[in-house]
């Protein structure tokens, strides 16, 4: 193979593969990060909002792998990010530390809170994801109760910027982390986002294979 794309449960397995591989290893998702998703997400925001720098992105829900990668990426490209999670479900502390270092360098802000409305206020981009990630099935019932207010719905959207775009990496659980009216409404760009996975991942491969 010229390149390996790997989807792992445990980020340590990802690192181990990368350490021993003599070709590039693309992280196709692990329990710590989901970088390819975020390449597509930022591409989608840029297509719809015309820029990235200076925009505010708000994350609502679980402080999971997608949230971790967004924290690092938004700080890199000059976006502010607010994260609203229930207490105890914040993004990984090590990732937050790295993201804060990048944010300081690029003069962006990172806010962690359990207040959904405070996070969403004036947001240019609203993002959520499943409350229960792969491998967490045993926690399903507990999380579904605990997270019930961590939802992107019409009311939350009305607090965000008028031109706000809504992202979700899919598959979505309608009626849980996102409502039908938002998912199918004019602010939702989730299907462009899904299409852009293809284009963003082609770009990553071209770059890694030394053709760009
Ligand atoms: N956070 C989710 C992303 C799915 C694409 C998971 O890890 O299951």
Please describe what this structure looks like.
With 212 residues, this protein is α/β, with parallel strands linked by helices. It is 43% helix and 13% strand. The chain has 9 helices and 7 strands. It has helices spanning 11-20, 35-49, 65-77, 93-105, 116-120, 140-146, 154-159, 180-183, 190-208, and strands at residues 4-6, 25-27, 56-60, 80-84, 110-113, 125-128, 165-168. The strands form 2 sheets. Strands 5-4-3-6-7 form a 5-stranded parallel β-sheet. Strands 1-2 form a two-stranded parallel ribbon. Helix 2 (35-49) crosses helix 9. The longest helix is centred in the last third of the chain and has 19 residues, at 190-208. The two termini are 19 Å apart. The mean pLDDT is 97. The structure holds norvaline (NVA). Norvaline binds next to helix 3.
Biggest sheet character: 5 strands, parallel
Count of separate DSSP helical elements: 9
| Strand segment count | 7
Helix content: 40-55%
Structural class: alpha/beta
Distance N to C terminus = 19 Å
State the low-pLDDT regions, or none.
none
Strand content: 5-15%
- In angstroms, what is the radius of gyration? 17 Å
Attached small molecules:
norvaline
> Which H/E pattern describes the elements?
EHEHEHEHEHEHHEHH
**Please, what is the average pLDDT?**
97
The best one-word shape is: globular
Sheet with most strands: strand arrangement: 5-4-3-6-7
